[in-house]
Amino acid sequence: MFQEVMKSSWKLNLQLLLVIAVAFLLWGCGSGGGSSFDSPTVTQTATPLIDAETLKGWVDAGLVNDGGFENVVILQTGSQAEYDAEHIPGAFLWDSFTQSGRLEGLAYDVKVMVPDGPTMDAMLARTGIDSETTIVISYASTSRIYNPTRAYFTLRYWGFPKDKIKVLNGGNNGWTDAAYALTTETTPEIASTFCVTDNDDLYDDLRYSIGELIQVVDANNASIAAAEGPLYNIVQQTTGDRVITNAIGRNWADFAQGGAVTGGYFIDSEAAEAVLLDADGPADDLTLGEFVPGLPSITHCVSGMSCTPIFFAMDALLGWDVAVYDGSKSQWDLYRGDPAGGDTTIGDAWNVNYLGRSNDISGGDADSVNAQLNFLYQSNDDPDANQIETEDAAYLNRFDGTSNSGTSGAPSSGSSDPSGC
Fold first, then answer.
1. What phi, psi does 181 have (nearest 5°)?
2. Which of 8, 184, 245, 355 lies 20 to 30 Å (CA to CA) from residue 419?
3. Percent helix, percent strand, percent coil in the chain, to nearest 5
4. In CATH, which superfamily holds the domain spanning 49-201?
5. Distance of CA 85 to the CA centre of its chain
6. How far apart are CA 75 and CA 168, in angstroms?
7. CATH number of this structure's domain 206-382+391-406, picked from the four choices 1.10.8.60, 3.40.720.10, 3.10.580.10, 3.40.250.10
8. Which residues of the chain are in CATH 3.40.250.10 domains?
9. What are the CA-CA distances from residue 397 to residues 103, 364, 420 (Å)?
């Protein structure tokens, strides 16, 4: 009798557990449109490039700013004035120029560089973004297509997975072309406790510092001189003269449909591959060498902005190995010393006019080089001279016991963290 009671009780408990499990599963499937908090399905797309109809479906499903399992947050890149003039309902402003210069290598670059950790957290804190959020990047009809792709690169660098970042093709033009309305009403802030420290890692392999780029150029030049071919595709966004020796060129306008770089649409993966592999190209394109499929690629421009549509095409649409030389020409030109070497202002390891590193040898202009850092960092592969990535990695890992030991002699460009992270 006792055994029969125990078996009966066990069966009842098992049935009860099954009922609870089924109820929990059904509840999970009905919340936010996803099958589970860890495995969303609705916002999964073939590539990060989406159309207006896809985003409208997420809007109609109530996913935008809902804070659920498949929360969707829309960020409009560009200026405050562009946001005030027009944006998709529910969108937040992502100021493309929030972060300006940062110290890296031997000099402080005053141009746009990747935002530091406190800046990222402050930008994210008012949007309701969390680790499960799908981020959709839009752009105004007056905005150039490098604004959304620069934001895409920035989010990727700071550890956001590719499948969680979308770019709305055509931006606001794509939205209105599909007969959907824009608004001028500011989206109320949604407080978030999410910080970039909640991401798993810093994807610093997507970004090259000045020291790393010089090493690549030296290795590439040596390999080409030995008739062994390039080791990297160094892709310069330009319609002018080549800056770095043995670089090839592709015009960022060729990655926009019809060459419309303001408020335009991006080409698809097949067209992007054709542009990259076309060594002849348009007459005004910089075609100084063939793109070699399968090699890692590094793209650059003047300030690290207009080269990001090329990065987006390779990373988001084609899934190829590509990175951005963040400092680009504006930083490269800070490292021009005596072409003969032995310049007291800048060490030979850093002098881009030395050892045939630059195609155009302009006059020495290393006035921005810090004399103390020039003395301290004798090698361009000194990890302490990669201050931006060292500082960002330390910020990302600051709660797990990782110390910021790599920035000795390199003062932090970060300030107090306004997000509270």
1. -90, 145
2. 184
3. 35, 15, 50
4. Rhodanese-like domain (3.40.250.10)
5. 26
6. 10
7. 3.40.250.10
8. 49-201, 206-382+391-406
9. 20, 39, 16
